[in-house]
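ok here's Deoxyguanosine kinase, seq below lol
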Amino acid sequence: MKQNPYIAVEGAIGAGKTTLSTMLAQRFEFMLMKEIVEENPFLDKFYQNIEEWAFQLEMFFLCNRYKQLGDTLLTPASTRQPIVSDYHIYKNMIFAERTLSGVQLDKYRQIYHLLTDDLPKPNLIVYIKADLDTLLHRIQKRGRDFEQNFDAGYLSQLVEDYETAISHIRAQEPDTVIITIDGNKLDFVERPEDFEQIVAKIKEHL
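and the structure came out like this:
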């Protein structure tokens, strides 16, 4: 792997991205970069009326992630810290393709590419793949109020969207290593041996 490792952890809502990112940052002593979620002022409105508030929600996420990544990654390589992030910037398109349409989606795509095309990409992606039941269980367990009435149909489609997105990233970023973790079988929180298995896979590429 190139100098200044940049690891992104990805997966559908409830996969455990932030938890695993935090654990990996602590293990490797890398800088942890966490996305802003609950601070989004449109989140509650979005879950009540997706069509009405989707564009505002997606634009808030895009601009905040761009600012966060830009401040961290658009610095001289010699001074940049190794990073573990709990998202890949492409997740913005995963959600926008699902929630937006027509003119709004066209405008969003233009803004997305304008902001992100020159951002450095991760050296390595840890993709947590999990089925719908596993994700719903974890969403209920973490107890965010705005997620408790989550549309299972939306989440099921999101699982498929992530599979498509990972295939897209493989094609567009051939130098990026992608490690797929079976989130249905590996419990990296409750079973230390499962976490060590993930760490060992990452070390092969560091």
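fwiw The mean pLDDT is 89. kinda neat tbh
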